[in-house]
Amino acid sequence: MFDGIFDAIEEWMRELLTGVINTNLDRMFTDVNQKTGEIAGQVGMTPENWNSSIFQMIHNLSDSVIVPIAGMIITFVLCYELISMVTEKNNMHDIDTWMFFKYFFKMWVAVYLVSHTFDITMAVFDLAQYAVNQASGVIAGSTALDIHSVITGIDEKLEVMELSELLVLTLETMIVSFGMKLMAVLITVIVYVRMIEIYLYTSVAPIPFATMSNREWGQIGTNYLKGLFALAFQAFLIMVCVAIYAVLVSGIQKSDNISTALFGIMAYTVVLCFSLFKTGSLAKSIFGAH
Fold first, then answer.
1. Does residue 278 sit within a domain?
2. Which contacts (CB < 8 Å, 24+ apart) does range 233-237 have?
3. What digits encode the pLDDT tens for the residues 190-240?
4. What is the pTM of this model?
5. What digits encode the pLDDT tens for the residues 71-120?
6. Is residue 74 within 8 Å of residue 210, measured between CB atoms?
7. Any domain includes 88
8. Is residue 72 part of a domain?
9. Tens digits of per-residue pLDDT, 5-22?
10. H-type helices in the chain, by residue range?
11. CA separation (Å) from 34 to 30, 62, 88?
């Protein structure tokens, strides 16, 4: 009698644990597959296309708050430029008519840069978007993970496992499932933080652009442009990471060991997230921004 009760309880536990394991295996890669599939579309957008409301707010703030400050900076820089030019020419004893044409040309360039700041910054991101779109066309292979294509004969393996083994495997699948969901969140955070950084960066663009007409102060604007290109082409580096991830995923070998296969697949996703985190510093290093 008791043997029958214990057998029934054991069978119920086996069915419960097997169901939990199958559910975890079926759902653990859903979020990661979705996020990796969306990366190309997200990073390929310009700031204006990604969120037009935020872009318009940043544009208005820049025009109404930052541009007047940039105008004062231009005035200071141009006065400094004029004083430097006069003192360099022996207090105008060695005056040359050409230097006035050069001064007015610098003045025109300074005003033009500030008045067309957003056009210039968006042109940088349009260039980066072109590179990303071209890269997405070159990337061959899917980034989607399917556990059934990696582990052979899952159902048969679960049927012959002991109850203790099923319990351990249940815990492992729960850990991996939680880890994969965390990786999906991190991928979203990386993409969103980059876009927010772009909006913050472009909001103050008129100020560094106002310094570019002067040799001494121009390093501010030059370094800003380097950082702008780094942010824009970080999207290209992200696409390269996704391309490498797609190749790694497509090359995963089938395994008979469920635990080994699970943690092996999770390792690829961890590598992807770590690589995505490194793209920002790598882009700044390439363009010499600091």
1. yes
2. 233/128, 233/131, 233/283, 233/286, 233/287, 234/43, 234/194, 234/279, 234/280, 234/283, 235/43, 235/44, 235/128, 235/129, 235/131, 235/132, 235/194, 236/128, 236/131, 236/132, 236/135, 237/279, 237/282, 237/283
3. 888 888 988 998 888 888 888 887 777 778 888 888 888 998 888 888 888
4. 0.77
5. 888 888 778 777 777 676 655 555 666 676 777 777 787 788 888 888 88
6. yes
7. no
8. no
9. 666 666 767 777 777 777
10. 2-27, 30-43, 47-50, 52-61, 67-88, 97-115, 117-138, 147-150, 154-159, 163-203, 206-210, 218-250, 258-287
11. 6, 35, 63
Question: How many structural domains compose the chain?
Answer: 1
Report how far Cα 16 is from the mean position of its chain's Cα atoms.
40
Sign of the dihedral through C-alpha 145, 49, 220, 65? negative
Name the 3-class secondary structure at 263.
helix
Among residues 185, 217, 177, which one has the least CA distance to residue 34?
185
Find out whether 144 and 31 touch, Cβ atoms under 8 Å.
no
Q: Tell me the average pLDDT of the chain.
A: 77
Quick check: is 21 in a domain? yes
- Confidence band, pLDDT 50/70/90 cuts, at residue 256: low
Pairwise CA distance, residues 131 & 239, whole Å: 10
Residue 214 DSSP code = S
Span 137-153, pLDDT tens digits:
666 555 566 666 666 66
**Of 99-103, 127-131, 151-155, 275-279, the least confident:** 151-155
Give the total residue count for the chain.
290
Residue 207 domain boundaries? 2-58+116-287
Amino acid symbol at 88: E
